[in-house]
Write a structure and sequence with these properties.
This protein has 370 residues and is α+β, with helices and mostly antiparallel strands. It folds into three domains: 5-214, Alkaline Phosphatase, subunit A (3-Layer(aba) Sandwich); 223-259, no CATH class; 265-355, no CATH class. The protein has eleven helices and nine strands. The protein has helices spanning 42-59, 62-65, 88-97, 102-109, 120-129, 134-164, 197-200, 227-235, 250-255, 321-337, 342-351; strands at residues 5-13, 20-29, 81-83, 173-176, 204-207, 265-267, 277-283, 289-295, 302-305. Strand 8 and strand 9 form a beta hairpin. The longest helix has 31 residues, at 134-164. The chain starts with a strand and ends in a 19-residue tail after the last helix. The relative contact order is 0.09.
Amino acid sequence: MKPQKYSREIVFEQQDRTTPGNSVGGWIVQEDGNPFPIEAHYSYYLVKKAIDTVEGLLENGSGKRHPIYLQLDFFDPHQPFSVPAGFEQRERELHQVMTLPDTYHAAQQRDFRPEQNEPEIIDIYRRYWGIYQPQKLLEYRVAYALQLELVDQMIGRVLSRLKELGLYDQMLIAFISDHGEMNGRRAVVDKGVYLYPDVLRVPLVIKPPKSSGTPRRIVDSPVSLLDLSQTFLDFAGIQPEAKFDGVSLRSYLDYGSGSEDRNLLFFGGWHVGVNFACGIQQRAANGHRYLYAYNCTSTVGEFYDLDNPDAVNLINDPGYDAVRLAMIRRLGEVLQSDPRWIGYWAEFRIARFNALPASKGDMQLFTLPT
C-alpha cells in the first residue's frame, strides 16, 4: 500500500523539541489533492465486504443451513489516522468542546520531566511521542474522536443490513477493542507495556440472540476479553473440552452481575520499550476498585483508583497501605498458582519479600513454590 497523503498531518517532536518526530496521521486526501471520499476508506471497504459475504451465503443457501461467523477487524481508530472528507462540521463542533487531560497539564508544568513516583517506562513513552505542544495533542484527540465516529457509522451500516436481511434478532454480536488509548494522559498517546487503566480498559458490548430472553443490562463486574470465546460457545450450546482461561458471561448477562473475586491478571512485555509488568485489580471494602501493578524494570510500582477518570499513582499514599498490601499478597498468590507466571513470581517474591508471606526452601526458578 502507498503511504497516505494528507491535507493536514499531525507530527509530534523529538526530545530537542525542534526536530519532527512521530507522525500519527491526520486528514487524508487523494493523490491529486482532491477530497478523499468515505466510500474509498478501508473501513467502508471492510463493511461492504462483510455485507457482500453475508448476502452471498444467503443466496447460495449455506447461510441458511449453517451458522454464520463474521469478524470485522477495524483498523480505526488506530493511528496513523485517516480522516476522510465529510467530517468537517463534526470537527468544528469537537473543537468547541475538546479539552486536555489534567495529567497532561501536570506533565506540562513539570516541563515534561518524570514524576517522583513514576516508573521509567512511562517517561520512555513520553519522550518517544514528544507531545510538547498542547495544540497538537488537541488535534490528536479531535482526530481520534472523528475516527471513532467513522467506525460508529460503519458498524451502523452492518447492523442495518443485518436487520433488513432478517438476521439481526437471532445473532449474537460482540463489540470489543484489543486495547485502550492513553489519549494524552501523562503526555502519552496510544498504548504501551505499562498497566495504566486507560490502556487496560476496553469497550465490551454484547447483543445476545432475541430467543435467549436475556434482558438488557449494564454489568459492572470485572470481565476479560478472554471470556468471549467461552460466552460464544455457551450460547451455541457447546461445552469445550480444551482448557480456557475465560468464563462464560451468560450468567452475568442473565443476572446483571458476576464474581468480584476473579483473579484477572494483566501483564506486559516489550513494545517501544521493555517492561515486563504484571498486575491485578480488586474491589476493596470501601466499594472502590483498585489496580496494583508491579514493573520488573523499575523500582516504582503503580496503584490506581479505577473510579478516578484521570488516575494518578497512589503507590506512596499511606492512606491506601492496607488495600495495597492485600493486593500485593493476592498478586503473589496468582503468580504462584500457574506455572506460566513462574518467571514473574521468581522476581516478584524477591522484590516484595517484606510484604509477602514467608516461603520456604529453594528459590531457584525451576523449583516449584512452597
